[in-house]
C-alpha cells in the first residue's frame, strides 16, 4: 500500500518535484542539480528560473554543437574515439546509480567486476569490427592475425574469468542483491556497449550514416524544446510532464526538413559518403572512393497532385535524401521513446538526471538516451535496404585460403558461370 501511494503521488507531481526525492534514505543516488558556471549565474541572475534555464540550455547546446563540428573535422578515427569515451561515461553514470543506491552493503568486487565486464565486451565487439572492416591490415600483422584467429575463444575466456570471480565474491546474506547487481551490469552493457558498437559500424559505412542520424536527433530535441517552450499547451506523456504535443509535432516537421537539407549538402562530398578503408600503400585510413548511386543526383517525377501546387514536374535530388526521410521520421516519432524510457528509469529511482556533467542538460546519458535507439535503427536499416555483398571482402578472405581451396572455389565458380552462359559470352566479347 505504501508503494502504491508513492506511485500515485508521483503521477500527480511535476517532474521537478517528484524526481528530486528518493526512496533511499531521503537522499538522491546522484546529484539532482546542475553545476551551472558562476559566470552564467551572475549574468542571468535577473531572469526568472524558466528563462534562466532556457538561456543556460541554449548556450551549452551551442557549445556542444561547436564541439561536434570540431570532431567531425578531425575525421572518423577521432569520432570513433569520442564514441568510446561517451560509452564509458554513460556506463559509469548508470553503474554509479546502482552503486550509490546500495552503497551501504559494501558489495565486494562490484565496481571492479563491472569495469572488467565492460573491458571484456568492448574487446569482443571492437575485435570483431577490426577483423571485419580492416581484414587486410589484420592479415598483414602477425600478432593481429593470431588475435583475430582466436578472438572469440579469447573473449569467452576473459568473460568466463569474470564469471568465476563473481561466483567467488558471493557473500552470505547478500546473495539476492549481488545477483541483482550482476543483472544490472549486464543490462547496462546491453544498452550502452552494444549500441555504441552499432554507432561505430554506421560510421565505417560512411560518415554521412553517422552524422545525419545523430544530427536529426539533435535537431528534433532542440526544435521540440523550442516549440514546446513557446507554444506548448497539451501534455504528451505522463513520464515527461514537460513534453507537449505541440513540441512533438513541431519537432517532427522541422527534423524532416532539416534531414533533407543536410543530406543534400553532405551527399556532394566524398569525405562524408565514402566508407572508411585501410590503404596498404599509405598505411593509413582513407575515405576516398567513387560515389555510389545513392550519392549521385537523379531526376524524379513529382506526383500529379503536387505539381499544380509546386509548379514543377520533376525534381533533382540524391537518392540518399529519400532515405533521410526515413531516418528523420524515426528520429522524430520513435527516437523520443528512448528519452521516455530514460525518464521512466529516473522516476523509478526519484532522480532528476543521470549526472550533472553538463549544466542545464544533466549527464552524458541524458543527451544520448535517444541516440542509442537511433543507432540500432540505422544499423538495421543499412543491413536491410542499403548494404549488399562486398566483393572486396570476399576477395580478401579468398586470398587467405590454401591454394587447393582457392583452386576448388575457382573451378566451382567457373562451372557455375559456364552453366549460366555468362563465361562463354565474356570470352566471345
From TrEMBL:
The keyword Transmembrane appears for this protein: yes
Any Pfam family: CTP_transf_1
Annotated EC: 2.7.7.41
CC terms in the record's Gene Ontology section: endoplasmic reticulum membrane
Membrane-spanning parts: 109-126, 153-171, 178-200, 206-232, 244-266, 320-342
Any one Gene Ontology molecular-function term assigned to this protein's record: phosphatidate cytidylyltransferase activity
Membrane-topology annotation of the record: Multi-pass membrane protein
InterPro entries noted in UniProt: PC_trans, PC_Trfase_euk
Reaction equation(s) it catalyzes: 1,2-di-(9Z-octadecenoyl)-sn-glycero-3-phosphate + CTP + H(+) = 1,2-di-(9Z-octadecenoyl)-sn-glycero-3-cytidine-5'-diphosphate + diphosphate; 1-octadecanoyl-2-(4Z,7Z,10Z,13Z,16Z,19Z-docosahexaenoyl)-sn-glycero-3-phosphate + CTP + H(+) = 1-octadecanoyl-2-(4Z,7Z,10Z,13Z,16Z,19Z-docosahexaenoyl)-sn-glycero-3-cytidine-5'-diphosphate + diphosphate; 1-octadecanoyl-2-(5Z,8Z,11Z,14Z-eicosatetraenoyl)-sn-glycero-3-phosphate + CTP + H(+) = 1-octadecanoyl-2-(5Z,8Z,11Z,14Z-eicosatetraenoyl)-sn-glycero-3-cytidine-5'-diphosphate + diphosphate; 1,2-di-(5Z,8Z,11Z,14Z)-eicosatetraenoyl-sn-glycero-3-phosphate + CTP + H(+) = 1,2-di-(5Z,8Z,11Z,14Z-eicosatetraenoyl)-sn-glycero-3-cytidine-5'-diphosphate + diphosphate
Segments of this protein annotated with the region Disordered: 1-37
GO biological process terms, semicolon-separated: CDP-diacylglycerol biosynthetic process
UniProt-listed PROSITE patterns: CDS
Main localisation: membrane
Biased composition (Basic and acidic residues): 1-22
Metabolic or biological pathway: Phospholipid metabolism; CDP-diacylglycerol biosynthesis; CDP-diacylglycerol from sn-glycerol 3-phosphate: step 3/3; Lipid metabolism
Protein location: Membrane
Alphabetical keyword list: Lipid biosynthesis, Lipid metabolism, Membrane, Nucleotidyltransferase, Phospholipid biosynthesis, Phospholipid metabolism, Transferase, Transmembrane, Transmembrane helix
Top EC class, one word: transferase
PANTHER family for the chain: PHOSPHATIDATE CYTIDYLYLTRANSFERASE, PHOSPHATIDATE CYTIDYLYLTRANSFERASE 2
Family to which this protein belongs: Belongs to the CDS family.
Protein name stated in the entry: Phosphatidate cytidylyltransferase
Source species of the chain: Struthidea cinerea
Amino acid at each position: 500500500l505504501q508503494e502504491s501511494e508513492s506511485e500515485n503521488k508521483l503521477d500527480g507531481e511535476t517532474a521537478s518535484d517528484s524526481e528530486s526525492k528518493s526512496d533511499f534514505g531521503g537522499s538522491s543516488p546522484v546529484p539532482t542539480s546542475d553545476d551551472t558556471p558562476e559566470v552564467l549565474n551572475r549574468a542571468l541572475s535577473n531572469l526568472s528560473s524558466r528563462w534562466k534555464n532556457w538561456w543556460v540550455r541554449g548556450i551549452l547546446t551551442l557549445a556542444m554543437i561547436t564541439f561536434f563540428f570540431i570532431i567531425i573535422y578531425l575525421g572518423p578515427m577521432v569520432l570513433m574515439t569520442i564514441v568510446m569515451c561517451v560509452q564509458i561515461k554513460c556506463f559509469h553514470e548508470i553503474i554509479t546509480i546502482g552503486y550509490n543506491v546500495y552503497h551501504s552493503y559494501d558489495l565486494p568486487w562490484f565496481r571492479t567486476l563491472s569495469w572488467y565486464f565492460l573491458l571484456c565486451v568492448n574487446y569482443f565487439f571492437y575485435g570483431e569490427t577490426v577483423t571485419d572492416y580492416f581484414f587486410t591490415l589484420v592479415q598483414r600483422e602477425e600478432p593481429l592475425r593470431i588475435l583475430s584467429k582466436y578472438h572469440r575463444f579469447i573473449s569467452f575466456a576473459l568473460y568466463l574469468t569474470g564469471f568465476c570471480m563473481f561466483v567467488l565474491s558471493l557473500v552470505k546474506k547478500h546473495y539476492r542483491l549481488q545477483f541483482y547487481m550482476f543483472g544490472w551490469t549486464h543490462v547496462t552493457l546491453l544498452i550502452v556497449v552494444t549500441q555504441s558498437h552499432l554507432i561505430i559500424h554506421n560510421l565505417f559505412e560512411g560518415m554521412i550514416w553517422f552524422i545525419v542520424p545523430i544530427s536529426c536527433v539533435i535537431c528534433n530535441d532542440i526544435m521540440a524544446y523550442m516549440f514546446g517552450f513557446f507554444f506548448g499547451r497539451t501534455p504528451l506523456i505522463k513520464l515527461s510532464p514537460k513534453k507537449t504535443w505541440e513540441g512533438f509535432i513541431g519537432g517532427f516537421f522541422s527534423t524532416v526538413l532539416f534531414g533533407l537539407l543536410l543530406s543534400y549538402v553532405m551527399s556532394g562530398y566524398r569525405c562524408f559518403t565514402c566508407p572508411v578503408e585501410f590503404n596498404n600503400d599509405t598505411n593509413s585510413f582513407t575515405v576516398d572512393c567513387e560515389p555510389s548511386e545513392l550519392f549521385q543526383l537523379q531526376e524524379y517525377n513529382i506526383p500529379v497532385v503536387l505539381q499544380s501546387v509546386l509548379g514543377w514536374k520533376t525534381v533533382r535530388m540524391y537518392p540518399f535524401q529519400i532515405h533521410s526521410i526515413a531516418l528523420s521520421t524515426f528520429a522524430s516519432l520513435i527516437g523520443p521513446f528512448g528519452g521516455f524510457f530514460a525518464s521512466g528509469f529516473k522516476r523509478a529511482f526519484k532522480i532528476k538526471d543521470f549526472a550533472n556533467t553538463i549544466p542545464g542538460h544533466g549527464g552524458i546519458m541524458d543527451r544520448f538516451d535517444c541516440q542509442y535507439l537511433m543507432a540500432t535503427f540505422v544499423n538495421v536499416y543499412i543491413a536491410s535496404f542499403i548494404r549488399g555483398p562486398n566483393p572486396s571482402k570476399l576477395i580478401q578472405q579468398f586470398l587467405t585460403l590454401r591454394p587447393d581451396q582457392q583452386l576448388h572455389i575457382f573451378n566451382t565458380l567457373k562451372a557455375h558461370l559456364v552453366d549460366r552462359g555468362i563465361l562463354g559470352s565474356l570470352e566471345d566479347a
